[in-house]
Amino acid sequence: MSTAPTTTEAEASKPDAPASSPRRWAPLRPLILRLHFYAGILVAPFLLVAATTGFLYAGAFQAEKLVYSHEMTVPVGDTKLPISEQVAAARKAHPEGTISAVRPSPADDESTRVMLSGVEGIDADHALAVFVDPYTAEVRGSLEQYGSTGALPLRTWIDEFHRDLHLGETGRLYSELAASWLWVIAAGGLVLWFSRRRALRKVRGTSGRRRTLGLHGTVGVWAALGFLFLSATGLTWSTYAGANIDELRTSLRQATPSISASAGGEHGGHGGAAGTGGSGDHGVGLDKVLAAARAEGLGDPVEIVPPADASSAYVVKQVQRSWPTKGDSVAIDPASGEVTDVLRFADYPVLAKLTRWGIDLHTGVLFGLVNQILLMALTLSLILLIVWGYRMWWQRGRDSAFGRPIPRGAWQQVPPQILVPLVVVVAVIGYFVPLLGISLAAFIAVDVVLGEVSHRRGKRTPADAS
Questions:
Q1: DSSP assignment of 86-155, as one string?
Q2: Which residues contact 358 (CB under 8 A, 6 or more apart)?
Q3: Which residues have C-beta within 8 Å of that of residue 96, sequence separation ≥ 6?
Q4: Residue 203 in contact with residue 211, Cβ under 8 Å?
Q5: Torsions phi, psi of 429, nearest 5?
Q6: Engineered SS bond to 164: which of 172, 197, 379, 403, CB 3.0-4.6 Å?
Q7: In tens digits, what is the pLDDT along the chain, a chain of 466 residues?
Q8: Where are the transmembrane segments (predicted)?
Q9: Separation CA 246–CA 374 (nearest Å)
Q10: Are 314 and 296 in contact (CB under 8 A)?
């Protein structure tokens, strides 16, 4: 499989096939073709799973609204009750666990969420979200919630399936491997497609493998930019490449800043601890804390995080991930109600902002429904490209020869002045994107061994073979 076009062995060997491409690309074309072919064939299963689960995740936002409409929405009333009364109602219905956060009703027809941690039967990194009618304090239900976007059970299940196949940290290797190779396959496909003569790119009036190649190439070219984006943003929060990216951002002073949650000053240590359960009020209470945050310009949607311990402050942060992003946060002393720290999203470093927007665009929240539809179209195109890629592999066979590989020895055609810098660049990329480097080294090792075995067999005489 490949996410952008490939070609036949015969076409690759024709001197006039790459005539429209610059001369400097000519020696690299056979090498790129072989890499594109094998990477497509071997990595395609991982990409197919990532694309299918990504398609489901993009649609999960709208499905979530339908499935959990009773909990998430409420009839519009006249006046919303103080947030402390709403939290008290949630605690009366669910006294278990401790309050980890509160999300006041962000819209007239949306419920308030009170998140409880340490609840039996709920994963440690998840919370039990209690949904409260902000007008009547009626508890409309409770559901397990995960992540900063407030994913409920349906979306959480699909999210974890997309991320790690429900296999934990080990399972995350599959998605990182897919993201590591997607940009390589897409970029290689673009080079191959634009190095073909224009007459060979058309779909209309063709049949067989050439028609499959035309469809594969045309869709691949249109979707390539999206694939490069998905690959880059997917790597930003992967296990190994993501750690290297974080380290690089930190060294460039572009890490995402965090607000100081210390109560500070003479009031430090006078606020109650968050782990005491109860209504979630500490010191001045939730109502005054929310009012102080509003005075600092924090509009809905916001999340209130109670003090972590006796020396900590309340943290109120905006949680709107859609455009325009609302990411301001303030820390408020629980004893005095004074604002002790303010962090504005506008003051984030450039790379921190780009990372935030990139992840939100990747997950389908930045532009809402339009974003989600585009992601579904992009993942569907990747699924089609994989199917067409394998079909072309099938069509490469003649008679009994199924899926004939691209001939070996392509690297020998690349001049040293191009090959040596290319090897250095690949080594550097492989270091920063480890799963790409390791798997590429494994491909090369296996290919060398198979080539040597084939070479030795070719030297054997008929008598030896018998």
A1: HHHHHHHH--SSEEEEEE---STTB-EEEEEES-TTS-TT-EEEEEE-TTT--EEEEEEEBTTTTB-HHH
A2: 229, 232, 233, 236
A3: 116, 118, 119, 120, 128
A4: yes
A5: -60, -40
A6: 172
A7: 444 444 444 444 444 344 444 455 577 888 888 888 888 888 999 999 999 999 999 999 999 999 999 999 999 999 999 999 999 999 999 999 999 999 999 999 999 999 999 999 999 999 999 999 999 999 999 999 999 999 999 999 999 999 999 999 999 999 999 999 999 999 999 988 888 766 566 777 777 888 888 899 999 999 999 999 999 999 998 999 999 999 999 999 999 999 999 875 333 333 333 444 455 667 899 999 999 999 999 999 999 999 988 899 999 999 999 999 999 999 999 999 999 999 999 999 999 999 999 999 999 999 999 999 999 999 999 999 999 999 988 887 654 444 556 667 667 777 888 889 989 999 999 999 999 999 999 988 887 787 778 777 775 544 444 3
A8: 37-58, 173-194, 215-237, 365-390, 418-446
A9: 28
A10: no
Question: Residue 189 and residue 382: Cα distance in Å, rounded?
Answer: 13
Beta bridge partners of 179: none
Distance CA 197, CA 318 (A): 53
Q: Over 433-460, what HEC string results?
A: CHHHHHHHHHHHHHHHHHHHHHHHHHHC
Residues 6+ apart with CB under 8 A from 128: 94, 96, 97, 115, 116, 117, 119, 122, 142, 143, 144, 145
pTM for the whole structure: 0.85
DSSP state at residue 311: T
Q: What is the DSSP letter of 397?
A: -
Q: Could you give the CA distance from residue 386 to residue 375 in angstroms, rounded to a whole number?
A: 17
- For the chain, what percentages of helix, strand and coil (3-state, to nearest 5) are there? 55, 10, 35
- CA neighbours closer than 13 Å in the CB half-sphere of residue 304: 34
Q: How far apart are CA 2 and CA 393, in angstroms?
A: 10
E strand or H helix at 303, and its extent?
A: strand 302-305
Number of other CB atoms surrounding residue 63 within 10 Å: 13
Q: Residue written as tokens 């036949």? A: 8
Pairing of strands 314-318, 139-145: unpaired
Structure tokens at 39: 């990477």
Determine the Cα–Cα distance for residues 421 and 433; give it in Å rounded to an integer. Answer: 18
The packing angle between helices 416-432 and 240-251, to 10°, is 90
CB distance 337 to 355 below 8 Å? no
Q: How far apart, in Å, are the Cα atoms of 433 and each of 186, 189, 308, 412? A: 16, 20, 36, 26
DSSP 325: P
